[in-house]
Queue: 2 jobs
Job 1
Amino acid sequence: MSLHDLLKDKIPHEKLSLLPRGFEIIGDIAIITIPPALDDEKYLIADALTNQRKDIKTVLRKLHKIEGAARAGEFELLLGNSTTTIHRENNCAFFVDITKTYFSGKLYYERNRIAQKVNDGEAVLVLFAGVGPFLISIKKKKNVKITGLDNNPAACAFLKKNIELNDIEAHVILADANSMEHIFKEPFDRIVMPTPYGQDHFLNLASSILKPEGIIHFYTFKKDFEIAHFKKLLLESGWHIDFYRGCGEIAPRAKRYVFDLRKN
Ligand SMILES: C[S@@+](CC[C@H](N)C(=O)[O-])C[C@H]1O[C@@H](n2cnc3c(N)ncnc32)[C@H](O)[C@@H]1O
């Protein structure tokens, strides 16, 4: 039974129609957007969520769009008492406090896709590594030398815990990605960059620490009509596009896109 079905006898239809049908689950935490018109019903909704999914221990209401350098969200705790959880996917476990670091379960297909593409023996860099979803997914599957970089101390602390939790070896660097050219002396075979919104300039910087035959998996946010122009720009800048796809809608006709790039 859906959340809407569970609530249809408790909330008038016109109000209930304002409640989004979807919600995100990270470990045992549910994250839901509740519009202001449903303020009085917020606890009722949280309660219904835990009735629908017995594995949910905490319900958080998303208050603002995820913003700021750390890309962490602001939440109102509606039910439960912990914002830390362990999220499991693709045989990996991610310990995370979603009020301190960005994390989304939505990119699990991409993490698996990239892990399949990586070859044993590569030197791999994950920029904007967060708590480690890309890094751990890759290192769990492939025998590589892997480094993760993030400028959020909380993300790096969780990343180190997750490296232990998943019983892998990796190098963690707490630093601003704007300094990457100065941090890394040896170039990489592959760079994965789940780039923060509107910060495409990092692609140029990453290019300078990539081996001549290296590959970059570049994530960016674009409106659908911008894609043709963006592809043209990439080609003009000397990139060869091996593959690209939309991987998650962020607004009507706007998506997160991934481009698998190599230098011509
Ligand atoms: C969109 S999140 C991606 C996190 C993670 N890779 C994932 O997929 O869950 C972006 C991450 O980039 C980090 N970040 C933002 N600006 C940065 C910068 N200038 N240098 C290094 N890390 C940065 C944030 O702390 C955050 O963890």
Job 2
Amino acid sequence: MTQLIEKLKTAFPELDIRTHERMREHTTFRIGGEADIFVSPRKTELAPLLAMAREEHIPVTVVGNGSNLLVSDQGIRGLVVEIGSGMADISVQGNTITAGAGALLSKTANAAAAAGLGGMEFAAGIPGSIGGAVTMNAGAYGGEMKDILRQVKVMTPEGQMKTLSVEELALGYRHSCIPENGYVVVEAEIALFEKPQEQIRALMAELAAKRREKQPLEYPSAGSTFKRPEGYFAGKLIMDAGLRGYTVGGAQVSEKHCGFVINRGDATAADVKRLMEEVQRKVYEKYGVTLEPEVKMIGE
Ligand SMILES: Cc1cc2nc3c(=O)[nH]c(=O)nc-3n(C[C@H](O)[C@H](O)[C@H](O)COP(=O)(O)OP(=O)(O)OC[C@H]3O[C@@H](n4cnc5c(N)ncnc54)[C@H](O)[C@@H]3O)c2cc1C
């Protein structure tokens, strides 16, 4: 490992190469053990970095803003590549926004609003990056990434750049073809429409107020813990199963919104997993409905 770190330092003198990086600092859940090596590359560093990881046979885990992740307490072996501020350029041309995968949805939605472009208001309060939002086909309040994406640039596992149309992304409910192909999202082209700025800002403010009213934003979480089962709402099933406030260690089913598991301060990933399993078991026993995690569990 020491040899590898030296090699990385020589090849990427400007890259901040961190070892034993606490992943809790990089997730909205504030949970997770250490990553062996953690980097947040610039766009030009990405291809050679992934090439070196391939040559050295180091496992690579790609993360965005960490808002949909549960990282294990044992942490992540190998190299964690955060697609973040080094790849976060946003530019507007006509009705099109081109955003680096590391750009935050909130910043991109604000850039759209400032340019008088509507259609992205739904995404302003989702605390993810463009890359994470494409991968998850993030959505809220009747909108989803699928509605606004025109095309996406990805890097293939072989290090080639490829442009995928929205159809090729195979976007479905919290699903895209990105993980199964091992692609890294690099940039997205978003097609919006002209709309008066006051109307955009008013809708964004309305949706933000709804979030504050309904969601436990005062606690660390990873958003909705489970996907919406067809014909049901996960939060309502959990509440009706009598699990409001149900607690395992530092993890708790939010009393404000039962669809969220929150970290009351010192939750471990093991607490969250145990709690999720209990919730799945009780909801299945009572309603015969299988709850599928929306949160991505990663790490050893
Ligand atoms: C308070 C709160 C509210 C939320 N509300 C919503 C909501 O309304 N709607 C919604 O859909 N989600 C919501 N979420 C969940 C989360 O914000 C979204 O899933 C978001 O799209 C994740 O983006 P991220 O950058 O944080 O990705 P991460 O959590 O870092 O990663 C998520 C997945 O995407 C992959 N990934 C990330 N970036 C890339 C990339 N560049 N290339 C390839 N793979 C990548 C990761 O490997 C991982 O599998 C909420 C979360 C919180 C904490």
